[in-house]
Design brief:
Strand order of the largest sheet: 1-2-4-3
Shape: elongated
CATH superfamily of the largest domain: Homing endonucleases
Largest sheet: 4 strands, antiparallel
Helix content: 40-55%
Distance between the termini: 105 Å
Structural class: alpha+beta
Number of strands: 8
Radius of gyration: 29 Å
CATH topology of the largest domain: Endonuclease I-creI
Order of helices and strands: HHHHHEEHEEHHEEHEEHH
């Protein structure tokens, strides 16, 4: 009867790799290695084994491309609601959606929690959250399937939000101004502003605001949309406003408030100043 040691050495001399010998003998790799450690393969055979391994890896990579390796799949939806509009809207404005997944960046922890609460409807796994810069946070969902799906939904939302119900349009506008908006209130100068480098999105925001009775102006040079005059600002406050808990960064050197006030409170102060 051929001994285990003889099996190992015979197979090794025939050019078998350690993994192939393990498969043949059904014995632990450590046991196989003990008997063949002094029988190295020649350069040609090593090159053949390495080439075969690369081919297997490439074949596997092509097969699973675009699929979650942890089998974490997004939950698809066909019907939009305020939660889903808000989620995808935030990803459009302050998100980075790519083949790796979705990353939301914002200073407001309350908005991060809001995005996480909305995301549960599409993806039930929590994000990785970290501070990328002082007082700037990221919520990262690294999943290739989720990234592809949210990218498709971004396009769908931008194409269809103008025809959606008012309640859904309001959720979209609220997401925009929470992420990109600010209240300018110095002396007698008052305005609500929103910044966006994509002119098409600025024009879309302008159209939606008009549907709510809010007149605005788009300045392509400065990549902003501006709401001025009491009646428009008041209408904005009633129809859209900012989400509770979303604050300005009072720690900025050029902050005029010197404290982290809620945007909606600053808006309230601006409107109250018309009466003073």
């Amino acid at each position: 009867m051929v001994s285990f040691k003889e099996q190992c050495t015979t197979l090794r001399k025939r050019g078998f790799s350690i993994n192939q010998i393990v498969q043949k003998t059904h014995r632990p790799k450590t046991s196989v290695y003990f008997h063949i450690q002094n029988l190295p393969l020649n350069k040609k055979r090593k090159r053949e084994i390495r080439t075969a391994a690369i081919k297997r890896l490439n074949k596997y990579s092509r097969r699973i491309k675009g699929q979650s390796r942890l089998h974490r799949h997004p939950t698809p939806f066909d019907v939009w609601n305020t939660q889903l509009v808000s989620l995808v809207g935030h990803m459009v404005f302050d998100g980075d959606v790519s083949s790796r997944g979705c990353v939301y960046t914002n200073r407001s922890l309350s908005l991060h929690q809001h995005v996480a609460d909305c995301m549960v409807a599409v993806y039930s796994f929590p994000p990785k959250r970290y501070e990328s810069l002082p007082e700037v946070y990221k919520s990262a969902y690294y999943n290739v399937e989720l990234g592809k799906y949210i990218s498709e939904k971004e396009k769908e939302l931008l194409q269809s939000v103008a025809y959606m119900e008012k309640i859904l349009q309001r959720a979209f506008l609220r997401a925009f101004f929470d992420d990109e908006g600010s209240v300018y209130f110095i002396g007698n100068r008052r305005a609500v502003r929103g910044y966006q480098h994509d002119e098409k999105i600025l024009r879309l925001i302008q159209k939606l605001l008009k549907d709510f009775g809010v007149e605005s102006n788009v300045d392509v040079t400065y990549n902003e949309i501006t709401i001025t005059r009491k009646e428009n600002i008041d209408r904005f406050a009633q129809e859209i406003n900012f989400t509770a808990g979303v604050c300005v960064n009072g720690l900025r050197k050029n902050s005029i408030w010197k404290q982290s006030l809620e945007k909606r409170e600053i808006l309230k102060k601006a409107l109250a100043s018309y009466q003073s």
